Every structure is written in structure tokens, then in C-alpha cells.
Please model this.
Amino acid sequence: MSLLVVGLSHRSAPVSVLERAALSMDAQIKLLQDTVAAEPAGEAAVLATCNRIELYADVDKFHAGVAELSTLLAQHSGVGLDELTPYLYVHYEDRAVHHLFSVACGLDSMVVGEGQILGQIKDSLARAQDLHTAGRLLNDLFQQALRVGKRAHSETGIDRAGQSLVTFGLEQLAAAADVPAWARGRRALVIGAGSMSSLAAATLARAGVAEVVVANRTFERAERLAQILTEADDNAVTARAVEMSAVPGELTRADVVVSCTGATGLVLTAEAVAQAVEGRTGQPAVAASPDVEPEIPLPTAGAAGDENCPLDLAAVPTGFSVMGEAAVAGMDAATLEQHAAWVAGGTIERPGRRSPEADAELITALAATAATVGRIPERRRPEPPAERPAPFFFLLDLAMPRDIDAAVHRLAGVRLVDIESLAESSADAPMAADVDLVRRIVSDEVAAFGAAQRAAHITPTVVALRTMAADVVAGEIARLDGRLPDLDDRQRGEIRQAVHRVVDKLLHAPTVRVKQLAAEPGGAGYADALRTLFDLDPETVASVSRAVDSTDTKDRPA
Model:
């Protein structure tokens, strides 16, 4: 059996695809059960976060395993396999180990160095243990990933390379301002009471907000979080819990809203936020800038200046200039040349627009392009957006799929930061020098893990060999007892110890050496060699393996 991971993340897929592929808790459970029921897989674990969905499995066939895991991910995510496949990545054996260790250290996170992923890996392992889908390999792998992640954070400054997604999101909300200075005195509404929402509430409380209101579908969990915030020693915040039905009213009071729930649909629509803005300002919410180019009066059939125009003016959509780039979308080269000649001789007044001569030059250039590559693709040419007013309402959406309608960002006075904008903001973030140290730790730990797994692979064979030797010794001692019945107990003990010492000495060097050789890359064949040389019963080796698995530690990850 070999380790295989198939998944997608913010590095391989757009947020829109991740959002659609997000797995509910029920879907994760069903995915695990179906994976271990599938023929190629013997163990399975799912790591699902706001920016990654990964399925880990111990498979006996690579190609069959990739096909089966990809199909299962598509089925349970609800995204068609053909659509999902271009965004999937596959890691196998040592590369799969390297990937998980990198994830555990925060190297593969949207915000490099964030430590929250360790808790998510821990939860993933616990879920697989509860469902009995994690065997020895995945238990060892995930436990070691947790240790590697903790080592990276304790031995390096990887924490300086990035923050938690919550901290990074708040920094984006505050723009260039210091987060505590920006947050001080504001009122916050936190929707959700899970780990991410709790972290957001605690971070806001420490930053100095005046009040935190917690809303959750299970009111008791909201109450518990509000109580924890109130009793914390590191803040002086006022915290209270409300029902989800109270959210619209709380929106009109809040300055900062953080939402992270497990809802499959929108929690806050654009209309709800617009109503909250209107409730705060007393004025209807308006868009910060137009979405399309302002309409320009178009010449109509029979109007002066439209003679010889190749355009069907009645079919030109409103909002486009009949003389600009948008109007010529889809024209072939010959028609473009005709259109350029018409524009050059035109007399239509277009205040604030390019001159007919400039349009004619542009269209001539477009005609040359069309002659080479075909028709000009259709596109809109919006006006530069107007300068947005300073925001007074801040929303942070950390959910996947999203909780807050993306259309909210168009509202004047509103700043929305979500997973998609965080991904864009963090793409070019500088990486600290400590990242190189963490990468070296990961490489060393991958090599050590591989050696330990290869050595463990031969252990059942070595145990079976020693068991066979012990059985041979016991049989010969029994035969000696029959032949020499007059030996006393002391003499029998001396003979028994002498025979055992001889056998142990004969087996010691080869078994130690074979474990060393097996730990090296390509050392898996030594187990087969031992079984062949000593004619070991395969069932005996298998029974030892089962015994090792049954006694293998499966404690909760620390």
C-alpha cells in the first residue's frame, strides 16, 4: 500500500471553484466512508479548510487510486469531474508526505506561516479515527505532521512570515492603519461561533473594540463564546449573544462584521447590507461606481452622418459608442476598414470622447489585428471608476462557501474583504528568511519519516523470523529433554540459555543490518528476500502485521 493525496487549494483553483466544491461535515463523513469502501483504498482522511480540500488515502494501485479518489471528490463536492479535474493536484508517496508536512508548517497556506492549520489537521485526524478510516499509515503520517508543524513554529520564526487568516483579514480591512488603532471603540458583530469565528472575536476584543455581539444558529454556543470573551483577562470588551434572527437589526449598529459559518447559502445578501447602510445613514445605499459605460446618444437610421455606416445601428446595444472599440467587436478586417473610413469622415459630436481621427486610427489598427488573428473579440469598455468614499462599514467574510454576497463591495461606504480578496492580497506578500529554515526542516522530516516507514515495513518479517527461530529452539530443547531425562533443572537451564545465545548472536547482525538497508530508498525488497531465504510463512508475517496494527497507538493527537 502507498500514500496518495488528491486535492485542490487556493494555489490550484479559483475561489469560485473552491467555494462550489466546499464539503459540509456530512459530506466529509460520507466521502471517508465511500473511500475506504472503494477497492484501491485501505485508509482515508479528509483535510477540508476554507482554502483547500484534500483526500488522503493508502492505496494499492496508483492510477486506479487517482481515478477513484478524483471521482469521489467530484461526487461529494457536487462539481462535475470534467470541470474539477483541471484544478486537481496529485501527490504520491514521499511527495505526498512532503506536501502534508509543508501544509502543517503553514508553507502552503494563503497566509504563509499561519498556525491555525495545525488545529485543522488535528480535527481531520480525529474525525478519521472516530470513523475508523485511519489505519497505521495515516495515524503515523498525521501525528508526525502535527509534530513537524509544532517544531517549525518553535524552532524558527515562521510566525513572523505571516499571521492567521483572521489577523491578515483584519489588516486588510484596516488598510494602512494599525489594527488596534482602527478597531478601538468600534462595535463588532461576529456571525458564527466556530473556531474561526471565535478567533476573530477574541482578536477583535484584544484589539480594543468596544463591543462584540455574537450571533449563531445554536444560541447556546453564542452565549458560551460571549461569556468567554467577557471573562477573559486580556481585554475589557462588552460581549453579548443574540439569535440569528436579530442579525438585521444588529447590522445597523455594527461597524465591523465578521462572518464564518457552515451555511451552504448566503448569510448576508447585498440587499440586507444595503438596508443596514440605509439604517445607519438614513440615506439609500448607492453603488460606488457604475458597472458599465454611460450611455451615449446613438445615431438612428436616416440621421445625418450615418450614410455608408456598416453598422446595423438599430442592433447596437445601448451604452456603447458606435465609433469606439466596443462597437466594432466581432467585425472582420474588411468591414473594419470600411468602418474606419466612415468614422474618419463623420461629423457626430461626442463630448469628452476621442476625436473621429483617433477612433479611425484605432479602428485601422484593429483591422490589421483582425486580418492576422480573425475577428476582434467582444468586450465592454467601462469608464474609469469614480473615487470611492471613505468606508464606514467593514465586513470580513472568512467562510467557504462565502457568507456575504460579493456584490456588497459595490456599495459606497462599505469595505468587504473575503477569501478571494485575501488570496489576491497575499499572493505577492514577502516571505521571511525563516521560511527557508522551515523548508529544510520539512525535507529532513520527510526523509526520516520515509526511513521509519520502510524500516517498519520489514519489522513483521524480522519478528516472524525470530519467532520461527524461537520455535526451532523450543522444539530442540523438548527433544533434548526426551533424550536426556536425567538432567537436573540447572543443567537444562544452562543448555537452554546457551542455545538461545547462539541463535540470538547468529540473527543479531543480519536483522540489524536488514533494518538499516530497508530504511534506505529502494529497501522494500529486503523483506521479500528474508521471507524467501528462510521460507517464512506469509500468513505468519501477515498475522504479525495485524498484531502490530492492533497495538499501534491511536491516541488523540496532542
Q: What stands out?
A: Strands lie at 2-9, 41-49, 52-59, 89-92, 187-191, 211-215, 238-242, 256-259, 393-397, 414-417. Residues 290-307, 311-327, 347-353, 376-383 have pLDDT under 50 and may be disordered.
